[in-house]
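User: Predict the complex with adenosine-5'-triphosphate.
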Amino acid sequence: MSVDNEEIIVLGIESTAHTFGVGLATSKGKILANVNESYRPKEGGIHPRESAEYLSAVAPKVLFKAMEDAGITFREIHGVAVALGPGLGPCLRVGASIARALSIKFKIPLIPVNHGVAHIEIGRLTEKMFDPLVVYLSGGNTLIAAFSQERYRIFGETLDIAIGNCIDVFAREIGLGFPGGRAVDELASRGSRYVELPYVVKGQDLSFAGILTAALRLFREGRYPVEDIAYSFVETLYSMVAEVAERGLVHTGKRELLLVGGVARSPLLRKKLETISRDHNVKFRCVKPEFAGDNGAMIAYTGALALKAGVKTKVEESYIKPRWRVDEVDIPWFHMVRKMII
Ligand code: ATP
Ligand code: FE2
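Assistant: Here is the predicted structure with adenosine-5'-triphosphate placed in the model:
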């Protein structure tokens, strides 16, 4: 691997919830490795401590596989980035401990990365969008965000549970396993009759808890085919997201719409956002599946941008931040990305 003087290589570690990921990326947007292993609970949702034990167990294998894929040695790395939040405390500590150890051992800077910001940055890079309105939907997050005055500002978010979590609980309760996003989508594509469910948009914010309760009640009553309930459920959720995204576009005047996070894998959701984008003559892109879910590459790449912009932390100050919001992070590298994608 040869890089010019200005280009730096960063190793990134993701361990915010169920995935232990290690990526290697350069500040010019080359992804050298992206290795990820995910914890799948046998039943129920994610238990933070059990997930953390899994992440620790797979960590060495994932780390060394990523180094092998990149074909470089630890001595060639300029910095180590880690997602310090938002996420589950016990899981965050696994990645943070390994990143601190690598930083000390190889005397390289430690770079704090916000997981949500990383989802946005990998989307901007791989979909070549410089200044989009971002719709970020995953198991733990529901955000509509856009860059303004040095940060990704929030133009809509959930008031209670995240959209992916809402879909996963529904899936689990109707017997589709975890995580159930894809299975619910498939079931929904076979339904056709809309059964009324609560539609809760308050200003620019969204609430999903009531819809989940109502959809599960319909399921237990058994009066409608489960395909129709799933169809009505996702139709309601995705229409709410589309409504807020559409107002976000009009309000911010952005000319690009970018969909990121695990729920971006849903074809039904993509279709809705494509429609509003067409109506407003806005370019629409959706992050590719390998970068949609949690992954190490997005942490490495964001870390490389951040290090280039001078962002780093002392090991003794590298606390995990389970509730770290996207709009708390300054983005001094925002304009650097233009060169890479145009
Ligand atoms: P974050 O930490 O950013 O909240 P996460 O831990 O939820 O992320 P992701 O891999 O980004 O992890 O997202 C997982 C979510 O994506 C799950 O809720 C899952 O059901 C959902 N999902 C996956 N595939 C699909 C699909 N085809 N349709 C809808 N949802 C999907
Ligand atoms: Fe994520």
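The CA atoms of residues 39 and 54 lie 6 Å apart.
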